[in-house]
Amino acid sequence: MNTSLVTTGLVPLVISSVETFQLSSFLNGLPWDLTGGSVTIYFLDPAGVATNFPATIVGPGATYNWMVISPPGTWTRAWLVIDALGRKQKSRPIVFTVTQSP
């Protein structure tokens, strides 16, 4: 599955800011209609604590608005997509940094 995430790029995310993560899904090279399915975003914090949240499906993709939380450090995020037919795909993990407000 191809994914594209729109964030602030390599700039660290600041605690208490709100960030929008976006996923674009493709199946066999074509936009993957996720209507009737589910998309979940997973976060792994620097201490190794995992959390997950349901994302909002938007056609062949999904979005999730996240208020950046503590602790500062290196985090990881990934997506799990399940379509209406039960087909599952996981994205590759993406590493990002969370920091305190300057």
Please describe what this structure looks like.
- With 102 residues, the chain is mainly beta.
- The chain has one domain (13-99): Immunoglobulins (Immunoglobulin-like).
- Helices cover 0% and strands 53% of the residues.
- The protein has strands spanning 13-14, 18-24, 26-27, 30-31, 38-44, 50-54, 56-58, 61-67, 73-82, 88-90, 94-99.
- The strands form 3 sheets. Strands 1, 5, 6, 9, 10 and 11 form a 6-stranded mixed β-sheet that branches. A 3-stranded antiparallel β-sheet has the order 2-8-7, with no helix packed on it.
- The chain is elongated.
- The termini are far apart.
| SS element count, helices | 0
Oligomeric state of this protein: single chain
In angstroms, what is the radius of gyration? 14 Å
If you average the pLDDT, what whole number results? 90
Q: Under the CATH scheme, which architecture would be assigned?
A: Sandwich
Q: Give the % helix.
A: under 10%
Structural class: mainly beta
Number of strands: 11
Proportion of residues in extended strands: over 45%
**Overall shape:** elongated
Main pleated-sheet profile = 6 strands, mixed
CATH fold call: Immunoglobulin-like
How many domains in all? Answer: 1
End-to-end C-alpha gap: 37 Å
User: What is the name of the CATH superfamily?
Assistant: Immunoglobulins
> What are the secondary-structure elements, in order, as H or E?
EEEEEEEEEEE
Q: What CATH first level would be assigned? A: Mainly Beta
